[in-house]
Amino acid sequence: MSRRVALEAAHAVAEAARMADVDVIAAYPITPQTHIPERLAEMVADGELSAAYIPVESEHSAMSACLGAAAVGARTYTATAGQGLELMHEVLYAASSMRYPIVMAVCNRALSAPLSIWGDHSDAMATRDTSWIQIFCQNSQQAFDMTLWAFRVGEDPNVLFPVMVHFDGFHLTHVTEPVVLPEQEEVDRFLPKLDYPFALDPHKPMTHGAFGIPDVYSEAKVAQEIALRKSKSVILQGFQEFGDIFGRHYYPVEPYKTEGAQTLLLTMGSFGETAQIAVDTKQSKGESVGLLNLRLWRPFPFQELREAVKNAQKLIVFDRCISFGGPGGPVCSEVRSALYNERERPTVVSFVGALGGREMSPQDFEYVIDRGREIAEKGSEELFETVGIRGEVTGIRG
Predict the structure, then answer these.
(1) Is the pTM of this model over 0.90?
(2) pLDDT (tens digit, 9 = 90+) per residue, 120-139?
(3) For 3-246, which CATH superfamily applies?
(4) Which fold has domain 253-397?
């Protein structure tokens, strides 16, 4: 029988890794991720988890150790945040290119400078082209659930890609919420033992990460892209199987009160639950407003997004990262690209906010909706707008 406990998201994902019976953990502490490896180290030391815990001297070394563990067929787990994710950046490409199904928690943190330990999505966006499957969570329950789901999907023999499970630093990592923990039997039914088909074996020699001359490099990268896009079917299957067993259902793009809505607000991560309050307020006043939560970031859910916005007139995309020198926020850029060839598409407006841990209230999201509709109706010279700059809203002009 499942049990309901109070856990911060950092401890919730550690519980998920324990229930997934990971074989190897290699992680380096960095705020706000530190509670995850600390809790896992306690589990290993206390005998709650039979796993090899590898203490390393940096995040670069952590991911390198994960490569070695995954290469021999071990179920491998790590966690990081912000600058740590960037320090391991070059190794991320090796993990995905060699098709190692490593699962990594990313406790999203703003990148310096100025130095910040608080959360936004700049670290996630810096890694969007590393060929990892990437999923975003809104609360501690989802962080737990998506960790189990990540092992199930990444380790599928038709996928074999590493998976990042994103959840917001401090807003989730250090906030205690109710979490439903399932029975181990349910987890075992959902998540089979890992049988990595290309594990290094001295009795069956093979090469991993071979040198790629120009005659083969392009073909290898195209094959990798095709494989990542094809993982979408297993991603959907994983959502379905998770819902069948645990009763909680997830989708690449998740609507909230969108039926008949002429204006849609799109968010990612924990601030989406705050935005729900703003949508509730707007609808109580008779305004035609709905909300979309973009859960799956890579591979990008083109079809689901197009279906979700096809009847809307205005789409306001709220980014927690600036694409410097570009057309606003990176999520909005992706959304505009996805909708470019659609004959009937909403007017897309880009907003950037909540950088470096800045709070967003429901009233702030009400403003974003109001201002977004105004820009969509009247047009604007701004490429995008930022909210919450010393209490003012500042247009960034091209």
Answers:
(1) yes
(2) 999 999 999 999 999 999 99
(3) Thiamin diphosphate (ThDP)-binding fold, Pyr/PP domains (3.40.50.970)
(4) Rossmann fold (3.40.50)
